[in-house]
TrEMBL record:
<dbReference type="InterPro" id="IPR044834">
    <property type="entry name" value="PATL"/>
</dbReference>
<keyword id="KW-0446">Lipid-binding</keyword>
<dbReference type="InterPro" id="IPR001251">
    <property type="entry name" value="CRAL-TRIO_dom"/>
</dbReference>
<dbReference type="InterPro" id="IPR011074">
    <property type="entry name" value="CRAL/TRIO_N_dom"/>
</dbReference>
<dbReference type="InterPro" id="IPR036865">
    <property type="entry name" value="CRAL-TRIO_dom_sf"/>
</dbReference>
<dbReference type="InterPro" id="IPR036273">
    <property type="entry name" value="CRAL/TRIO_N_dom_sf"/>
</dbReference>
<feature type="compositionally biased region" description="Polar residues">
    <location>
        <begin position="1"/>
        <end position="21"/>
    </location>
</feature>
<dbReference type="InterPro" id="IPR009038">
    <property type="entry name" value="GOLD_dom"/>
</dbReference>
<keyword id="KW-0813">Transport</keyword>
<feature type="domain" description="GOLD">
    <location>
        <begin position="314"/>
        <end position="417"/>
    </location>
</feature>
<keyword id="KW-0132">Cell division</keyword>
<feature type="region of interest" description="Disordered">
    <location>
        <begin position="1"/>
        <end position="22"/>
    </location>
</feature>
<keyword id="KW-0131">Cell cycle</keyword>
<dbReference type="GO" id="GO:0008289">
    <property type="term" value="F:lipid binding"/>
</dbReference>
<dbReference type="InterPro" id="IPR056794">
    <property type="entry name" value="PATL1-6_C_GOLD"/>
</dbReference>
<dbReference type="GO" id="GO:0005737">
    <property type="term" value="C:cytoplasm"/>
</dbReference>
<dbReference type="InterPro" id="IPR036598">
    <property type="entry name" value="GOLD_dom_sf"/>
</dbReference>
Length: 421
């Protein structure tokens, strides 16, 4: 890190805010990778495909052509409306159609007849279910939006991320209101498909593009017995009709009994699907998932619902804090009357955090904006603002002097100048 870096590092607390050449370098590895490497129960073996025809084996190219031919025989060359998905005609013989056909082939290990059968069943289901028009429907689940299942942000490779959290259903009244009878369950499943379809609408469907999403499932407080039927139906429906649409299935806040729950729905999953699973132990979730600015605050990220009204999120900076060290983040050039707002994610690392404003004028006193305190593992990202009466700099401190382990944090800031009278 060069001398222009706003981060300085020190071995023990002191008031020298000069930048050290030993400042930590930007953290290259995604935080979710760090999380899962440290706490995974199962290591994913799945490698995402590129969908370039040139990357296929000869046998796979032959299977793709054979599937095209069989599909053409089944539906006829002019059956475009009957044989399309997500607005892409499957008989068009272009790269977008190939991406979809390859998804079905891979789901059945390139067994052409099995892939064709799966594809035909899916086309029939989509027509009967009305999947092509479901995104625009008002299904009346406003209380679940942004809580139970929702699309939010992207990972570093550009995959849309879908969050799922079923802990709210531990409330018996809500559970009965949503899952009380067969009709209610069907309506919920329809809503859950709607959320997935919204995510799929963000995909590229082209070789080398983003052709799948990330699923993050929060198991905190999930009533395992009550949701068993709904969970099995969702898994079965998605696996049968949305093959290869998930790049990673990440489980967070995993309780001790998850292995028993996993054994219940495991028989419904293919080996290829199970290879995409990443499972985190309970209590290891406060670390930031993916890009901090895209991750909801409740999961250690910096994103809040109100932020989405202001356009794309402002990028955050990630940094490491070695054991026995303290990092100071300096934000200089703050004018008198300007308001600085900052976000910093340090929760879950057992780090100590504080914030001070240091005036430029000689003889002025440093202002303790936030006194030093330890951040609890479950605490959300910090957001605070300060409007100084004189020019100076803000110093955010992250203290890891009481630990020997290297840890990770992230921050960003906004400065709004004072209005001219």
């Amino acid at each position: 890190m060069d001398a222009s870096s706003p981060i300085s590092l020190q071995q023990t607390p002191h008031q020298d805010y000069s930048v050290s050449e030993a400042s930590p370098k930007p953290y290259k590895k995604s935080l979710v990778t760090s999380l899962m490497e440290a706490a995974a129960l199962r290591t994913p073996s799945f490698k995402e495909d590129t969908y370039f025809i040139s990357h296929l084996k000869n046998s796979e190219k032959k299977a793709l052509q054979e599937l095209r031919d069989k599909l053409s025989v089944s539906y006829g060359s002019d059956a475009t409306s009957e044989c399309s998905m997500w607005g892409i005609p499957l008989l068009s013989n272009d790269e977008k159609a190939d991406v979809i056909l390859l998804k079905f082939l891979r789901a059945r290990d390139f067994r052409v007849q099995d892939s064709l059968h799966m594809l035909e069943k899916c086309l029939s289901w989509r027509k009967e279910f009305g999947a092509d028009d479901i995104v625009e429907e008002d299904l009346g689940f406003k209380e679940l939006e942004g809580v139970v299942a929702y699309m939010h942000g992207y990972d570093r490779e550009g995959h849309p991320v879908c969050y799922n959290a079923y802990g709210v259903f531990k409330d018996k009244e809500m559970y009965e209101r949503i899952f009380g009878d067969e009709e209610k369950l069907k309506k919920f499943l329809r809503w859950r498909v709607q959320v997935l379809e919204r995510g799929i609408s963000l995909l590229h469907f082209k070789p080398g593009g983003v052709n799948s999403i990330i699923q993050v499932t929060d198991l905190k407080d999930m009533p395992k017995r009550e949701l068993r039927v709904a969970s099995n139906q969702i898994l079965s429906l998605f696996q049968d009709n949305y093959p290869e649409m998930v790049a990673r299935k990440i489980f967070i806040n995993v309780p001790w009994y998850f292995s028993m729950l996993y054994s219940v729905f495991s028989p419904f999953l293919t080996q290829r699907t199970k290879s995409k699973f990443v499972i985190s132990k309970e209590g290891n979730v406060a670390e930031t998932l993916y890009k901090p600015e895209d991750v909801p605050a409740q999961y250690g990220g910096l994103s809040r619902p109100s932020d989405l009204q202001n356009g794309p999120p402002k990028p955050a900076s990630e940094f490491t804090v070695k054991g026995g060290e303290k990092v100071n983040i300096q934000i200089e050039g703050i004018e008198a009357g300007a308001t600085i707002t900052w976000d910093i994610a340090v929760g879950g690392w057992d780090l100590e955090y504080s914030a001070e404003f240091v005036p430029n004028a000689a003889g002025s006193y440093t202002i303790a904006v936030e006194k030093a305190r330890k951040i609890a593992p479950s605490e959300e990202a910090i957001r605070n603002s300060f409007t100084p009466r004189e020019a100076g700099k803000m110093v955010l401190s992250v203290d890891n002097t009481f630990s020997r382990k290297k840890k990770v944090a992230a921050y960003r800031y906004f400065v709004r100048k004072a209005a001219i009278a």
